[in-house]
Amino acid sequence: TEVNNNIATKQNSANIQVVTGAISSIGAGATKTSDVAYPSGFTKANTVILSKMCSSNNNYYDNVDLAETASGFPSISMVALTDSVIRVWLNNLSSEEAKNGYFKITLMKVD
Q: What is the pLDDT of residues 24-62, one digit of tens each?
């Protein structure tokens, strides 16, 4: 009813956006951050994270699946909605070599 109508209203292309990014040369066992700009109209106050996925080779994985089944690849350890940017922490699960990591984060605007 009212809740269903509100959810349906939010599910359009203007209210759902995907941000992507990459972090190169994450040292073995290390964590690096990347800051990504909010899409137009999105802010800390009106944004909800729907999903987050990461990759080292353009095959994206859910963060939990990646950590459990593909040890040695980068994993998203945290995403923070700050006042000015979306900050992403990628952790290199490899203990032997530096890796490049890529991420996709799906956002929904809820105001």
A: 999 998 999 999 999 999 999 999 999 998 887 767 776
- Quote the pTM value: 0.80
Q: Rounded to an integer, what distance in angstroms lies between the CA atom of residue 109 and that of residue 111? A: 6
CB of 79 within 8 A of CB of 49? yes
Q: Which residues contact 79 (CB under 8 A, 6 or more apart)?
A: 49, 52, 86, 87, 88, 89, 105
Please enumerate in sequence order all residues whose Cβ is within 8 A of that of 45, keeping only pairs 6 or more positions apart, or say none.
111
| 3-state percent helix, strand, coil for the chain, nearest multiple of 5 | 15, 50, 35
Report CA torsion sign: 58, 25, 90, 73. positive
Q: What distances in angstroms separate CA 97 from CA 14, 33, 60, 74, 84, one per listed residue?
A: 40, 18, 20, 11, 32
Return left, alpha or beta for 25; rule: phi > 0 is left, psi -120 to 50 is alpha, else beta. left
Q: What is the pLDDT of residue 9?
A: 58
